[in-house]
Amino acid sequence: MAPSAQAHKRTHSLLLFEKLLNLRDSASPLTLILDTLEQSAQPLTHEFMRRAKLERAKIVFVSFATIKKPALADIFIRARGKSLKTLAAEIASHVAPPRSSSTTKETTPPVQKALILLDTLNPPSSQTPSLLPTFFSSIITPTASLVAVYHTDVPAILPPSLSPVSQYAPDPLTLLTHLATTIFRVSSLHHAVAARRARERSLAGPAWGLQEGREGVLVGLREWNGNLGNGNGNVQGGGGEEDVVVEMEMRRRSGRAVAETFVLCGQGGGRGCKVVVMGDHPEFFRAPAEVGEEGEEMEATFNLGLTEKQRRDREGVVLPYFDAQVEVGGGEGGRILYDMGREDDFDEEEDEI
């Protein structure tokens, strides 16, 4: 049996997502990861670095907020307090320049790929947003890919020294999403499962974090190495501590966008993460007939099926005016037969009409 169009689309999207994670063929020069306080982008950035290490690519970690150097990073650059021009020059010094077309492959060794990872774009987006396009173009090369994180729930406070013309410029998030060739939006699997169960029961979806509108300290669902929930490393309601929902939006050169939602499942033991399409995850996959293993219908808020007794009762119901359809061929088809009951009030005037 030939695979369906939906199965072909899922397989194609999964292969594309793996290609982006492995930095193959410079599929995405600028990858933007959008996260929140409820779900950090660390699981996804860690997977980027792990796969870059397997590909023997140089990992340049640019820190605006990270204090300690990550274990997988080769180069650690502290960016706080530096201008974008100075920072771009320092990054370019650690990235191998692209090979010129005049040299041959026999005389020149292959150029090492590089992964440039920015832990957050919020500081430069608030200080000098107009310089971001120039900064990106100066550090992205055919052999170097840029992966940057932006916290969507952190407000961008623009400096008052901006010119009146700059006040009409787009906000930093709009500018970044326009420049990025691939956008990843990460969210909690626990939140997605809870929202899905609420929709199945026609209930209002739950809210977390800033959307709750509560005052006080905001505590996320879990940290990258923390254990919250049922005490064994898994969060109640589905998914382990490393399971993250990733919404992918990849812009091709033709302008067509490829969109799909995946679940990044942590396997533990340093084995990295397994990627599955969200519809194939155990928390979201449902059989077409919604039938259990023993043929029993799964629990739902309503049931469209009929029992054997209900089916027999429905077949034995006599429809109204059924007797008037018997003599259709005798010239009396369509006449209405009505038997008056004791509670009916006979009206002579109405009968004459």
TrEMBL record:
GO process annotations (BP): tRNA wobble uridine modification
Pathway listed: tRNA modification; 5-methoxycarbonylmethyl-2-thiouridine-tRNA biosynthesis
Cellular component annotations (GO), alphabetically ordered: cytosol; elongator holoenzyme complex; nucleus
Domain of life of the organism encoding this protein: Eukaryota
One Pfam family here: Elong_Iki1
InterPro entries per record: Elp5, P-loop_NTPase
Keyword annotations of the record: Cytoplasm, Nucleus, tRNA processing
GO molecular function: tRNA binding
Subcellular location: Cytoplasm; Nucleus
Protein family (similarity comment): Belongs to the ELP5 family.
Name this polypeptide is given: Elongator complex protein 5
The species this protein was found in: Parachaetomium inaequale
Lineage start: Eukaryota, Fungi, Dikarya, Ascomycota, Pezizomycotina
